[in-house]
Amino acid sequence: MALLAQLESASQRMLHTVDRLPDDAWGAPTRCAGWSRAHVIAHVALNAEALAGVLRGFRDGVPVTMYTSQADRDRDIDDLAALAATSPAAVRERLRTSVAAFAEVADVAAGLPEGTTFERTPGGQLMPATAVPFIRLREVEIHHADLDAGYTASDWPQATAMDFLAEEVRRASGPGFHVVATDEPARWTFGSAGPDAPTVSGPLAALAWWATGRDPGPVLSSTNGTLPTMEGR
Question: Does pTM top 0.90 for this prediction?
Answer without folding.
Answer: yes
